[in-house]
Amino acid sequence: MVHEQGEGELDGTRRPLRADARRNRKRILAAAAEAFATRGLAVPIDLVAERAGVGVGTLYRHFPTKEALFAAVVGQRVAALAAALGAAGAGDDTGSTLFTCIELLAVEVVGNQDLLEALEAAGVDVTPELAQALARLEREIDDLLRRAAAAGAVRADVSPEDVLGLVIGTCRGARQVGGGDERIRRLVSIVCEGLRTPGERVL
Length: 203
Hints:
CATH superfamily of the largest domain: Tetracycline Repressor, domain 2
Shape: elongated
Mean pLDDT: 85
Helix content: 55-70%
Structural class: mainly alpha
CATH class of the largest domain: Mainly Alpha
Strand content: under 5%
Low-confidence stretches: 1-8
Distance between the termini: 35 Å
Oligomer: single chain
């Protein structure tokens, strides 16, 4: 869900936006979140404007490029996901928490084409703001991994990049074969078995 900015939201020149401009920006972000989740960056910008009920010129006054709009939407989505992983990781059962968080990550990624594309582009072609959100997500995964490894629940040689790569590949496969959340959870459970230490494996 896109986080809506408050009354003090600013434009590109750091001036507070008028009430009508704030409403337009919120409509654009909401429409873009829905469109990007379904079709990713390939969605036509005029379709986003149409769904938001604004002209293309109005959209570009808020976001000068489609990539800037994509970064704003996905950056919020990634930041929310990182926060969710951080909150989930506060529990004591570090092994179980890690695998639950990997499942949460996979379900979010498989359901949002924009999030999948952002993770695939990490470190290659993203804005500084989106890169910052992705870096926070990696830190949360790294913290979960280190704690799970210290508890003997997961192999010590697994990195955040390994986890993200496995999630991306699994989600790509799940999108091709279909099956919904139950399918992705089954695939993730198989992936997680490969991350466990030999003594922790259950299959």
